[in-house]
Amino acid sequence: MTTAPLADWRPGMRLLRESLHGSRGPALRVALWSVVESAPALAAGWVLATALDRGFLAGRPSTGLAWLVLLAVLYAARALAERALFDPLAQIVEPLRDELVRRVVRGTLGGAVHHGRATDAAGVSRLTSQVDGVRGIVGALLRTARPLAVTLAAAMLGLGALSPVLAVVVGVPVTLSVVVFLVILRAVTRRRLAVVVAEEELATATATVLEAGRDITALGAEEQAADDVRRTADRSVDAVLATARAGAVRVPVVLFGGQLPVLLMLLAAPALVERGAVSAGEVVGAVMYVTGYLIPALNMMTGTVAGMWSQLRVLTSRLVLATAPADVPWPAGGAGETPTGDGPRGTPASGVGGAVSGVGGAVSGGGGMVSGVGGAVSGEGGSASGGGGMVSDAEVAAPAGGRPVQAPAGDGLREASAGEDLVVRGLTFAYGPHAEPVLHGMSLTVPAGDHLAVVGPSGIGKSTLAGLLAGVEAPTAGTVTLGGTPVSPGRIALVPQEAYVFAGTVRENVGYLVPGPDTAALERAVEAVGATDLVARLGGLDAVIDDPAGTLSSGERQLVALARVYASPARVVVLDEATCHLDMAAEAAAEAAFAARPGTLVVIAHRLTTALRARRVLLIDGGRPVLGSHAELLVSSPAYASLAGHWAAPAGAASVAPRTDRDVSVT
Ligand SMILES: Nc1ncnc2c1ncn2[C@@H]1O[C@H](COP(=O)(O)OP(=O)(O)OP(=O)(O)O)[C@@H](O)[C@H]1O
Question: Which domain holds residue 90?
Answer without folding.
Answer: 19-328
